[in-house]
């Protein structure tokens, strides 16, 4: 039997139980201004693009408002428009940097809908490739991530800047 090492997962495992003590993970990361460390790819006027620290697939991004809001109805028109624009930018950037065959884009509102962060609304963008669901997740309940998060960060950051014209 071969061992599959994913030491970065321990940070998630050890921190999973005390989310309430830390406050909002998104707001804390936005305040810090250490974008590479916090996997913030893009900051807009009222919204941002984050890499998912514990991704489903390489290139798994999240788009969220800068303000701490839980529901779409709490967002203003400018936030809604910028979020939609950043979703489009993220799709173009992922396509340019990683060339996936497709995407899953979704929003989980509420715990029963699968939301891991309940009080700060965020949209998930997951790039998909033909054959990316293989025997590992199905039989071994293990997901193999073929590229390090910081490597993906560099590729996506460059692609978003190019796609936006910045």
Key words describing this protein structure:
single chain; 166 residues; alpha+beta; HIT family, subunit A; five-stranded antiparallel beta sheet; 7 helices; globular
Structural notes for this entry:
The protein has 166 residues and is an alpha+beta fold. The chain has a single domain, classed as HIT family, subunit A, CATH 3.30.428. It has helices at 9-15, 19-22, 25-32, 35-38, 77-98, 135-140, 149-164, and strands at 40-43, 47-51, 61-65, 102-107, 123-128. A hairpin with a 3-residue loop joins strand 1 and strand 2 (47-51). 23% of the residues are buried. The model has no long low-confidence stretch (mean pLDDT 85).
How does the major sheet shape up? 5 strands, antiparallel
Distance between the termini: 48 Å
Shape: globular
The arrangement of helices and strands along the chain is HHHHEEEHEEHH
Average pLDDT reading: 85
CATH class: Alpha Beta
Helix content: 40-55%
Structural class: alpha+beta
CATH architecture: 2-Layer Sandwich
Give a count of the beta strands, DSSP E runs of length 2 or more. Answer: 5
Uncertain regions: pLDDT < 50 for 5+ in a row? none
Per CATH, what is the topology? Answer: HIT family, subunit A
Strand order of the largest sheet: 1-2-3-5-4
Overall tally of domains: 1
By CATH, the superfamily comes out as HIT-like
Q: Work out the helix count.
A: 7
Q: What gyration radius follows from the Cα positions, in whole Å?
A: 16 Å
Strand content: 15-25%
């Amino acid at each position: 039997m071969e061992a599959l090492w994913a030491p970065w997962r321990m940070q998630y495992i050890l921190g999973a139980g005390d989310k309430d003590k830390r406050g909002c993970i998104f707001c804390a990361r936005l305040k810090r201004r250490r974008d590479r460390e916090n996997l913030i790819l893009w900051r807009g006027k009222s919204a941002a693009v984050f890499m998912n620290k514990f991704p489903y697939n390489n290139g798994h991004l999240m788009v969220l408002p800068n303000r701490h809001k839980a529901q779409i109805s709490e967002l203003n028109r400018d936030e809604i428009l910028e979020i939609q624009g950043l979703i489009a930018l993220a799709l173009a950037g992922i396509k340019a940097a990683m060339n996936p065959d497709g995407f899953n884009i979704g929003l989980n509102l509420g715990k029963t809908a699968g939301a891991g962060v309940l009080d700060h609304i965020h949209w998930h963008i997951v790039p998909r490739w033909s054959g990316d669901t293989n025997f590992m997740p199905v039989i071994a309940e293990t997901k193999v991530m073929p590229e390090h998060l910081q490597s993906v960060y560099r590729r996506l950051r460059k692609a978003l800047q190019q796609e936006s014209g910045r």
